[in-house]
Every structure is written in structure tokens, then in C-alpha cells.
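Q: What residues go here?
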């Protein structure tokens, strides 16, 4: 349960991400430990909440659902800020060998939203993504 303790101590910067003009308030995972822990051990996230993973370089980074308490939609975003792949309602995993979800193409960012968000907000491949920064 060491990871659970670490997860409870991590502080995230919040960032607004727009997908086809729909705004989400996401926690920014921009370090190794933040990306490794992700949304593990959380009981839930708000309807317009989730996590933004900023990858070191564009790749087919895998995401797993180890120690997750709720399903999510996983959205991979390429360097052109377009959705390049989506996994709807990724399954929870509480065993040692969990399924690893990967995009079909390389992605620079990964968004994790509440399960059903992609269908609810009509997010699809080629949807445009904008990450708002405080330095605007």
C-alpha cells in the first residue's frame, strides 16, 4: 500500500483542456511518479474532471487500470493536437497481470476522463484538443 500512501501525498497542477470547445478541468501528470500513479486509488473524479498525461516524447505509451476504482475513457492525442485513438470504458484490474491499452498511432498526450465522456460529449478521433496554460 506504499503507492496508495504516495498517491495521497502528490499535489497536481490543474489545467483546462478543451476538446472541440468542451472544457475539462484536469490534473496534470507531468513527472514520472505522477504518470506512474495516475488515477490509482481515487474513489471518483468529477464529471468534467480527469487527468492529462504529458509524455516525454510521442510514443505508443501503454495505460493499464491497476488499482483503479472506476472505469475511464482513455484518449490519446498526437503532436498536432488531434485525438488519434480512444479506448471507451477501460476495464478495472485488481490482479497482477492487467491488460495494457495502447493507441494505434504515437501520441504526445493522454487524457483520462470519466467513463462514457467520449460518447456523452461526442469526442471522436480527429477531435481537436487545446491545452490552456497559465502563461497565455
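A:
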Amino acid at each position: 500500500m506504499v503507492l496508495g500512501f504516495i498517491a495521497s501525498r502528490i499535489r497536481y497542477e490543474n489545467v483546462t483542456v478543451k476538446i472541440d470547445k468542451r472544457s475539462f478541468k484536469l490534473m496534470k501528470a507531468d513527472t514520472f511518479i505522477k504518470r506512474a500513479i495516475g488515477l490509482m486509488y481515487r474513489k471518483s473524479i468529477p464529471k468534467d474532471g480527469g487527468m492529462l498525461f504529458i509524455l516525454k516524447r510521442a510514443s505508443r505509451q501503454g495505460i493499464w487500470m491497476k488499482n483503479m476504482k472506476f472505469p475511464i475513457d482513455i484518449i490519446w492525442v498526437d503532436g498536432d493536437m488531434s485525438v488519434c485513438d480512444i479506448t471507451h470504458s477501460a476495464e478495472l484490474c485488481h490482479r497482477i497481470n492487467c491488460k495494457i491499452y495502447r493507441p494505434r498511432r504515437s501520441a504526445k498526450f493522454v487524457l483520462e476522463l470519466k467513463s462514457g465522456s467520449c460518447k456523452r460529449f461526442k469526442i471522436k478521433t480527429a477531435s481537436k484538443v487545446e491545452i490552456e496554460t497559465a502563461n497565455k
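A: Context that may help when evaluating the design: The beta strands are 13-19, 22-29, 49-59, 63-64, 72-77, 83-90, 100-101, 107-114, 129-131. The first strand starts at residue 13 and ends at 19.
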